[in-house]
Amino acid sequence: MSDGEPTETETPLDRAMRLAGGEATDGRVVDALLSSELHLWLEAAGEDGPPRARVLALEAGPTALAFDTEERLIAFAGPGDYLALPGRALAAMCAERG
User: Fold this and answer.
1) Is the pLDDT of residue 59 over 90?
2) Residues 20, 31: contact at Cβ < 8 Å?
3) pTM (predicted TM-score)
4) Residues 7, 11, 16, 18: what is their CA dihedral angle, to the nearest 10 degrees?
């Protein structure tokens, strides 16, 4: 595979991770993450209040999951509610909540 444009199945985030050798803190990965549209897995939608991220209790601590394609989210969680938003917006939301 060349270092050129993403293939049909390789997203810009995939490409950045490949070029960075899997190092998630590499600037290319961070830039791709912030520039991508992400799909945040949500709790079942209710009529009372804003959407809430589904939070998993993992050993590393509470974790919300976002995917760089709708297909990947569905493959992981099945059909359900999600919020599509720019990576920059998701990073800002996470920063606000600490």
Assistant:
1) yes
2) no
3) 0.81
4) -60
13 bridge partner residues: none
In angstroms, how far apart are the furthest CA atoms of the chain?
Answer: 49
Cα–Cα dist 97/51, whole Å: 15
Within 10 angstroms of residue 91's Cβ, the number of other Cβ atoms is 14
* pLDDT band, very low/low/confident/very high, at 4 (cuts 50, 70, 90): low
Phi (first) and psi of residue 83, to 5 degrees: -120, 120
Q: Which residues contact 81 (CB under 8 A, 6 or more apart)?
A: 41, 42, 43, 44, 45, 51
* Sequence-separated contacts (24+) of 23-29 with Cβ below 8 Å: none
Report the C-alpha gap between 25 and 55 in whole angstroms.
Answer: 23
Structure tokens given for 15 = 């490409």
